[in-house]
Design brief:
The protein is of the alpha+beta class and 368 residues long. The chain has one domain: Beta Polymerase, domain 2 (2-Layer Sandwich). The protein contains 12 helices and 6 strands. It has a 6-stranded mixed β-sheet with strand order 1-2-3-6-5-4. The two termini are 37 Å apart. The N terminus is likely disordered.
Length: 368
């Protein structure tokens, strides 16, 4: 595991999150209490904690153009760039075609083709005749953007280590800025899952597919006090992590109380159903406490495309995604997690015991 102080800063200056640098340029949100942040921010935090999908939302809470611009920037798209603006228009066109042709749903003509594409988040936030069409369109655009990025990564055949290094350098830069802004981060570190750990995980899991390993790149954030966790999540989502690409069903949260968000619902409906709890890790101690979530981080690959002579801006865009795991906890909890049954060495022993059990089963036993 690497500590933030031991790593260079230069690589991330114009790296994968270049378009989100503007989001990190101001520090006024770093110490703002959750009672003062926007309704959109609160919904984003609750989606993460509840491990829900944005596809189940029926509206956004975007008040102005700057908030809409932030959402696009976090997804790796700059509405002021001609190429990215064309990309957004292409995404809208493909999404509209899918909705009207495959699903046989009607879209409002203004939302479909006439409204400025950068205004869609605001239209999806305001009650009225455009709201449902805009929300539906954005959901499908969200999926297509992700699919295109996945396909682009396959076309480029970029080594994982190269992409991991880009993500690491940019996230390091973000946390340097958060510290300077007053966010009470007392420890920040990251690691890459070793090959041995990947083998163990696949032997333990029922799904023996490498695609199901979500934590090959992991970031660990420790803040001073438990009450700092909510504001820290707010800053992370506001400046670096697109809330709509937090992996649904993968959050483990037995640390952050969600009662502080009871005044709002997850999807904008006051009678929204409660989410099913996420599956816990059977190898963790019952005393282990953590907030752990997975996010797909968009990485701009303009330089890599140009170096390889690949022109995909009009078809697949210039963004790929990298899955990363984030573990967020307070100092006292982190200390307790390394004691007794919660200790990491004992966790690994329990994992290895299960692997030995599965590998050595005789034909007469279940699963043999």
């Amino acid at each position: 595991m690497s500590d933030v102080e031991d790593q260079p800063r230069e690589r991330g200056q114009d790296g994968p999150f270049a378009y989100s640098k503007a989001l990190r340029a101001t520090a006024d949100d770093a110490t703002r209490p959750l009672t003062e942040v926007s309704l959109q921010d609160l919904h984003e935090i609750k989606l993460l904690l509840r491990s829900e999908s944005v596809i189940d939302w029926h509206r956004l809470y975007i008040d102005d153009e700057s908030q809409a611009r932030r959402l696009f920037q976090l997804c790796g798209l700059d509405v002021d760039s001609e190429a990215d603006h064309r990309r957004l228009e292409a995404l809208r066109s493909e999404a509209a075609n899918y909705i009207t042709t495959c699903l046989k749903l009607r879209l409002d003509d203004y939302v479909n083709s006439h409204a400025p594409v950068e205004s869609l988040p605001m239209l999806a936030s305001k009650e009225g005749k455009y709201q449902r069409s805009a929300c539906t369109l954005l959901k499908v655009m969200h999926i297509i953007h992700h699919l295109n990025a996945r396909e682009l990564r396959t076309v480029l055949s970029i080594p994982d280590n190269e992409l991991f290094a880009e993500v690491e350098s940019s996230v390091v830069l973000m946390f340097d800025e958060l510290r300077a802004a007053g966010v009470p981060v007392v420890e920040f570190s990251w690691s890459r899952k070793t090959r041995e750990s990947q083998i163990t995980k696949l032997l333990v899991k029922r799904e023996t597919s490498a695609a199901r390993i979500f934590d090959r790149l992991r970031f660990r954030v420790i803040v001073e006090n438990r009450e700092d966790l909510g504001p820290t999540l707010h800053v992370m989502l506001h400046r670096c992590i697109p809330f709509n690409y937090v992996a649904p069903g993968q959050t483990v949260n037995n640390l952050v109380e969600t009662t502080q968000f009871n005044s709002i619902s997850l999807t904008g409906s006051e009678d929204a159903d409660e989410a099913d709890p996420t599956e816990t890790n059977e190898f963790s101690s019952q005393q282990f406490r953590v907030l752990n979530f997975i996010a797909d981080l968009p990485v701009r690959v303009d330089a890599l495309l140009d170096a390889r002579g690949v022109d995909s801006a009009e078809t697949k865009g210039r963004v790929v995604f990298i899955l990363a795991e984030f573990q967020v906890l307070d100092r006292a909890t982190a200390k307790r997690n390394e004691q007794g049954e919660s200790a990491h060495d004992l966790y690994k022993q329990r994992q290895h015991g299960r692997v030995r059990e599965r590998l050595l089963r005789t034909p007469g036993k279940r699963g043999g």
